[in-house]
Amino acid sequence: MEMYETLRHLFNRFQLDWKVLRAIMVTTGAMISGSAALAVLHTGKFVPQDLDIYVTSENFAAVLLFLQEQGYEVQMPEIGATKKVYGDSTVTLTLKNRGREKIDLVATTEPHVVHAITRFHSTCVMNFITYYSIVCLYPEIRMDDA
Question: Least CB-packed of 33, 54, 111, 119 within 10 Å?
């Protein structure tokens, strides 16, 4: 129940309709990873700076349209700004809403988004939220050691 409440607060913070987002995730296979998943798994220990949504390139447009309908706009990269690297097989768009909440929409050419998530730089962030579950790939790793 604690994870559910954390997840609900997370989506409220990003002003996303969870029921619609869940339907989008069901139909597109999109998943949420990164610090948002850590915040749900380790309640109170992480405050995500953004929301990382992973989707296959075939379903990228559907998720982008949903985010735009929720009030998010694509941000042009700033000259000289460092960019998060999600892997060689990905394209990333950064979106922000009027409240300046940030979402990174990561499209992968991999056959499934889990392939991209498992190639992330560190095992402690290889966690993800699907439309029906929260998955922790390395549950025995203590966060103190990460």
Answer: 111
Q: Note whether residue 143 is domain-resident.
A: no
Model confidence over 37-49: pLDDT tens digits?
Answer: 888 887 778 888 8
pLDDT at 135: 85
**Whole-number pLDDT of residue 41:** 83
Query: Where in the sequence is the domain holding 122, given as residue range(s)?
Result: 2-136
How many domains are there within the chain?
A: 1
Q: Are 117 and 130 in contact (CB under 8 A)?
A: no
CA distances from 136 to 41, 64, 107 (A): 8, 26, 21
pTM for this model (two decimals): 0.84
What does the alpha-carbon distance between residue 81 and residue 68 come to, in Å, rounded to a whole number?
A: 23
Q: Is residue 95 part of a domain?
A: yes
Q: What is the CATH number of the domain that holds 56?
A: 3.30.460.10
Q: Note whether 72 and 95 are within 8 A (CB).
A: yes
Would residue 142 count as lying in a domain?
Answer: no
